[in-house]
Amino acid sequence: MLFHDDLINKLLTEDVPYGDLTTEEMGISGVQGEMIFRARFDCVLAGADEAAAILKKLGAELSISAANGKVMQAGDHIMTAKANAGILHKGWKVAQNIMEHATGIATRTAAMVAKGRAINPDLIIACTRKSFPGGKTICMNAVLAGGGTPHRLGISETFLLFSNHSNFFPDEQSLLAALTKAVKAQPEKKLTVECEDLDFAEKAIKAGAGNIQFDKVKADKLHEYIPYLRQKYPYVTLEAAGGINIETVAEYAMTGIDVAVTSFVYTGKPMDIEVVIRPV
């Protein structure tokens, strides 16, 4: 995904709205230096491309050893930025924070992908839009770096019928009629319907749904649902959401689902990135 200048400017303005008081008052702003980034732990790197864009925007000269998606060992060099101390300190925490949070997401995503695909090699780990507000671009880039797939970038480009939509219809018949109408109006899309049981899933498929997303349905039930639907409706994509994390992904992968939908990757510790700034 693109990392636009307006986001770079927003992130820099948030941390450096009026300059760097400490560096300026200590009289070192013009001293030439270098800032070295290294992985402190084994991880899957993310946020490095975004950090590089920020440092370039500030005018730093970069020597880059690793990009988003690279599997890193503790101590591996990521990049070195050369500029005066004023520029380096302005970009320091913005770049480091992005890499630490994004690398945490990418590393957790990669762990889920590996665990799920050890059982089902074709399983897609789809990460939801429950990223932290304002951080969608960084989070989605991190998901991609970890081998996952964005579930939905927003509500404008994908159709997902939740129970909170269904609540506005007086009965199931009118709901399914509206779904059929929506399917005809969006012929280039596979419409997704959230389901909690097999009966409604079949009705949604017959109404034209191309994707069925089982929400908070236990894996033992999906062991019954998925083979039945796979045999009868092989063209339908079958997804599971709700409670899927690093501890449960293998259990759900064994059900035969196509897609495991998760928000797990966004919760957890950032992955420490070592930063050293020194004069040259």
From TrEMBL:
InterPro entries noted in UniProt: Aldolase_TIM, ModD, NadC/ModD, Nicotinate_pribotase-like_C, Quinolinate_PRibosylTase_N_sf, Quinolinate_PRibosylTrfase_C, Quinolinate_PRibosylTrfase_N
Gene Ontology biological-process annotations: NAD+ biosynthetic process; quinolinate catabolic process
Gene3D superfamilies: Aldolase class I (3.20.20.70), Quinolinate phosphoribosyl transferase, N-terminal domain (3.90.1170.20)
One CC-aspect GO term: cytoplasm
Quinolinate phosphoribosyl transferase C-terminal domain segment(s): 105-275
Lineage: superkingdom: Bacteria
Name of the molecule in the record: Putative pyrophosphorylase ModD
